[in-house]
Amino acid sequence: MSIPQRIQEILDTIPENVTLVAVSKTKPNEDILEAYNSGYRIFGENKPQELTRKYNELPKDIKWHMIGHLQSNKVKYIAPFVSLIHAVDSFKLLKEINKQAAKNERVIDCLMQFHIADEETKFGLDINEAREIFNSDDYKNLQNIRIVGVMGMATYTDDETQIRSEFKNLKSIYSTLKEEYYADEDGFAEISMGMSGDYNLAIEEGSSMIRVGSTIFGARNYANK
Ligand SMILES: *Cc1c(COP(=O)(O)O)cnc(C)c1O
User: Fold this and answer.
1) What's the pLDDT score for residue 220?
2) 23 C-alpha vs ligand 1 centroid, how far in Å?
3) What is the chain written as a DSSP string?
4) Of 45, 69, 121, 191, which residue is the least packed, with the fewest Cβ within 10 Å?
């Protein structure tokens, strides 16, 4: 099956209100263009440098999502064009995004990343850390970012029960924050969860945005993962 066919197959099986982010990290421009020429516009990358290079080389109406861990000192490279930043995991990072967005006279949409896996290595906040951010006066003064939801990554395991419970946890964090801080804001609407191996489970548990790489573009070369 071709790349556009694999994208279409996923789109045919997911609900209409779920956004598919085609994760093109490590893949060449030709692969992205194949998808682009079939009409697809939403792509995800996890490294600022690679993302910036692809932005420069590819058509400008692509919506680029930064899905990976982002260091504050790299925000400036993607701030001019990025369409959604998925993995905001500190107040420091959020403030830097705001600063760089202001320089570019933009408002940048962001998701707060939560730690839901039982793996030490995955980044993310817990709900009290998010509350501390949202309660602070500093946060209320950020005019150039908009928090549009939450993001999380489940543990890499075959145990469906565990994955499901981690997704349930993220959904519940979303609902709690929605009620406490965003009850009147329609903009706080996204739950980014689910990848190639678990996106169906994620959708069953309330995902509104799935990030799918290898199922669309094929396995990645682990040497440059
Ligand atoms: C690579 C990556 C994905 C996609 O992973 P696949 O298993 O290839 O679908 C999703 N989310 C994040 C944050 C990633 O880094």
Assistant:
1) 87
2) 6
3) --HHHHHHHHHHHS-TTSEEEEE-TT--HHHHHHHHHTT--EEEES-HHHHHHHHHHS-TT-EEEE-S---GGGHHHHTTT-SEEEEE--HHHHHHHHHHHHHTT--EEEEEEE--SS-TTS--B-HHHHHHHHHSHHHHT--SEEEEEEEE---SSS-HHHHHHHHHHHHHHHHHHHHHH-TT-TT--EEE---TTTHHHHHHTT-SEEEE-HHHH----GGG-
4) 121
